[in-house]
């Protein structure tokens, strides 16, 4: 039988990283995905344990900013998240709607309607 040496330093480093992540009050791991539909853009973000009143969404200068804060009463600490998403040029900043259901935030951004090309008549003088 051959014994294979175990790399303890890797296991210790992994444990250290996981403990540091749990102690850091400014991290909230989420997954976000975006989808472009014909008339709008949809962004979905997983925010488990975050209530709708703990979420703030702002849109400014082509950026959509998502801020969330989750409170852990048993541990007396809060975890914060801030993520920014670049919006396409045809995003209508005045037509953004958001809803939260079962820990999933869905943000819908309407597209600005593009004007169709038209033929211009030339008048004779």
Helix coverage percent: 10-25%
Overall average pLDDT? 80
**N-end to C-end Cα span:** 101 Å
- Biggest β-sheet description: 4 strands, antiparallel
Low-confidence stretches: 23-27
Per CATH, what is the topology of the domain at 27-111?
A: Immunoglobulin-like
Shape: elongated
Order of helices and strands: HEEEEEEE
Total beta strands? 7
Radius of gyration: 23 Å
CATH class of the domain at 27-111: Mainly Beta
CATH architecture descriptor name of the domain at 27-111:
Sandwich
Tally of DSSP helical segments: 1
Strand order of the largest sheet: 1-2-7-6
Structural class computed from helices and strand pairing: mainly beta
Report the β-strand fraction as a percent range: over 45%
Any overview of this molecule?
The protein is mainly beta and 125 residues long. The chain has a domain at 27-111: Immunoglobulin-like, CATH 2.60.40.790. The chain has one helix and seven strands; from the N terminus they run αβββββββ. The chain has one helix at 8-23, and strands at residues 32-36, 40-46, 55-60, 63-72, 77-86, 91-101, 104-111. The strands form two sheets. A four-stranded antiparallel sheet has the order 1-2-7-6, with no helix packed on it. Strands 3-4-5 form a three-stranded antiparallel sheet, with no helix packed on it. A hairpin with a 4-residue loop joins strand 4 (63-72) and strand 5 (77-86). Mean pLDDT is 80; it is low at 23-27.
């Amino acid at each position: 039988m051959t014994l294979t040496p175990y790399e303890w330093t890797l296991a210790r480093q992994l444990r250290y990283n996981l403990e540091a992540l749990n102690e850091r009050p400014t991290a909230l791991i989420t997954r976000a995905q975006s989808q472009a539909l014909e008339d709008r853009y949809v962004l979905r973000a997983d925010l488990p344990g975050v209530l709708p009143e703990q979420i703030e969404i702002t849109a400014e200068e082509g950026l959509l900013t998502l801020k969330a804060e989750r409170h852990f009463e048993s541990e007396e600490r809060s975890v914060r998240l801030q993520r920014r998403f670049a919006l396409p040029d045809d995003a209508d900043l005045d037509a953004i709607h958001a809803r939260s259901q079962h820990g999933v935030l869905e943000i819908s951004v309407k597209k600005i309607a593009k004007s169709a090309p038209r033929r211009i008549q030339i008048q004779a003088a």
